[in-house]
Amino acid sequence: MGSISHMKLRRAPLKTTGAIDHLEYVDVTPIIGREYPTAKLKDMLNAPNADDQIRDLAITICERGVVFFRAPQDDLTVEEQKKITYLLGKLTGRPEDHGLHVHPLYNDPNNIPMADGTTDENIYVINSEAMKKLYATMKNRPNSSSEPRDLGREWHSDCLFEECPADFSFLRMQDTPPSGGDTLWVSGYELYDRLSPPFAAFLETLTATCAQPVFKSASEAGGYELMSPRGSPLNFGDKFAPVHPVIRTNPVTGWKSLFAGVGLHVTRINDVYNYEDQMIRDYVLRLITRNHDCVARMHWTKQACAIWSNSCTLHAATSAPSDASSLAAPL
């Protein structure tokens, strides 16, 4: 797994030091995912070698795509969750003037507060009922009562609608539904490796426009201001239509990954005819749906956590009742 980029990297790929080798773990599949059944993130953060442990954790996330912490992390405060997310990026070389992402719609009065009744611009509470209200102005996201849902378009990388998307995301489950609500991740590394060399070389020449006009329309409909800037000096304004490479190299590992070839935020593959654009996106989705060994699935338990690299995975959530909620902190 993981094709080395032949392009000259700005730095050598990072290597783990063994700082977290003492932690019990099991790989979810041979290709993607690692679960730590007993580890406590608070212990890692308070360890004498905390920076070494979190740096190794960040590298492991970039190699495995996503890691799960199954033991309840109920002793972890929101500030500690934010600190870990921040350090994952800082210790692996993100620019100094970049920090935790701020959701564009943080000012929306429909945003759900955290358990203590407060809100935080770097924490986004995810709840199915709130999401319906929040994205009511999104086009082409059918209601299940009107037509069958096309869940294939739910695959996405976080914040791809920004000039500088999130490197890492940290999701903690507060309340679990009686059924449903699982989250799935697919390895962008493996999707790239399953392309034929000529087709992979062609896709490496392409970019995609990743427009998300729902944020502007939602803020106008709700009568509130969009947040700006949003964690990076590059993420400002209300355009939300950046151009990203279809294939990118993860700077932490040096491995190539399918990045912006399909999903919720990808609106067009650039510089090709319309039918070629659709053909490429349909083929990428076919790669995902016909290669389930590239997918890791998290069946949530209360206060379990998932941390993933948006540089090398796509993810999608399955439907859950409205009484489920989780805390997300993207970087």
UniProtKB/TrEMBL annotation:
TauD/TfdA-like domain segment(s): 27-320
Name of this chain's protein: TauD/TfdA-like domain-containing protein
InterPro entries from the UniProt entry: AtsK-like (IPR051323), TauD-like_sf (IPR042098), TauD/TfdA-like (IPR003819)
Metal-binding in keyword set: yes
CC cofactor: Fe(2+)
PANTHER family assigned to the protein according to its UniProt record, in alphabetical order: ALPHA-KETOGLUTARATE-DEPENDENT SULFONATE DIOXYGENASE, TAUD_TFDA-LIKE DOMAIN-CONTAINING PROTEIN
Keywords: Dioxygenase, Iron, Metal-binding, Oxidoreductase
GO cellular component terms attached to this protein's record: cytoplasm
GO molecular function, one term: metal ion binding
Family under the similarity heading: Belongs to the TfdA dioxygenase family.
Domain of life the protein comes from: Eukaryota
